[in-house]
Design brief:
Strand order of the largest sheet: 1-6-5-4-2-3
Largest sheet: 6 strands, parallel
Radius of gyration: 17 Å
CATH topology: Rossmann fold
Strand content: 5-15%
Number of helices: 7
CATH architecture: 3-Layer(aba) Sandwich
Number of strands: 6
Structural class: alpha/beta
């Protein structure tokens, strides 16, 4: 399966697929160097999200994973260990869109609503979602890897219109989560960088001009998620600062894959194990 095909398949997997008081959410950009001794323990932790959370292509799929492709090396599992969670439910699912948080997935996964795992005694909920809405990044990568000059126009014209719909959808999902677990800490988590801040490289197979369009789309998604978290009154953990210099062009320092991932270290244009470890540390540092 080609790198692009893998991304497109995942985009269809799910179907079109004590609370911290604040008047506005904090956008957290901590150093990803927290240790277990520096973070609080939690009782019940529930992880919701898409493939950047579930970890397709990483070692050791969970027994209950099915087509959701949840690895026991994904960042929520690592975070649960760091926090010493006494109860942990990971219901993240490859291909999930924001609407799959509150309703059953209609694609290959057949997954129940992810929010069903959240209850009134849940202490911590993390959510990583938005990149699959209306095929956002799969369509963008497809446009930017074709030689038909559609990448720039897609990033300029289509991405903003998709994000205009994603923001209220994520707000609704976050509000549903806080209603289901009124005493929980709820954290919206952003996406690791795929693209370098400037330029390109052979491993991603995208021209410099199109790479620039992808960077703008990544930044726009991060901004949209920050806005959604603010409107919902929850914290947002941006991964843009933490993953600077760890994009898919960073060689041995890369936290995300380019078009040709190593075996059992994630899939194309998705987190590597090093990236999952970094996300777990970064989120832990905000709690």
């Amino acid at each position: 399966m080609s790198a692009l095909a893998a991304v497109l398949v995942l985009s269809g997997c799910a179907g079109g697929a004590a609370s911290r008081p604040a008047s506005a959410s904090a956008t957290a950009t901590p150093s990803p160097t927290a240790t277990a001794a520096a973070v609080p323990s939690v009782g019940s932790y529930v992880a919701l999200g898409d493939s950047f959370t579930s970890g397709p292509g990483l070692a050791n799929l969970r027994d209950d994973s099915g087509f959701c492709l949840r690895s026991d090396h994904n960042w929520p599992t690592l975070l649960a260990t760091t926090l010493g969670a006494t109860r942990f439910a990971d219901v993240s699912c490859a291909g999930a869109e924001t609407h799959d948080i509150g309703q059953p997935a209609s694609g290959l996964t057949g997954a129940p609503p992810q929010i069903a795992a959240v209850s009134r005694d849940t202490d911590l909920v993390t959510l990583g979602i938005g990149g699959n809405d209306s095929g956002l990044f799969a369509s963008l990568i497809a446009a930017c890897t074709r030689d038909d000059s559609t990448c720039g126009s897609y990033a300029r014209d289509t991405v903003p219109s998709i994000l205009d719909q994603t923001v209220p959808a994520v707000v609704d999902a976050l509000q549903d989560i806080t209603a289901a677990a009124p005493d929980a800490t709820v954290v919206l988590v952003g996406y690791l960088r795929i693209m370098p801040e400037s330029g390109t490289c052979r491993s991603i197979g995208i021209s410099a001009a199109d790479a620039s369009a992808l960077v703008r789309a990544e930044e726009a998604l991060d901004g949209a998620l920050q806005l959604a978290a603010r409107d919902a009154g929850v914290d947002f953990v941006s991964l843009r600062a933490a993953s600077r210099g760890h994009d898919a062009c960073a060689g041995a320092e890369a936290w995300t894959n380019g078009a040709a991932p190593a075996d059992r270290d994630g899939i194309a244009f998705h987190p590597r194990l090093a990236g999952m470890r970094a996300v777990a540390r970064t989120v832990a540092a905000t709690l």
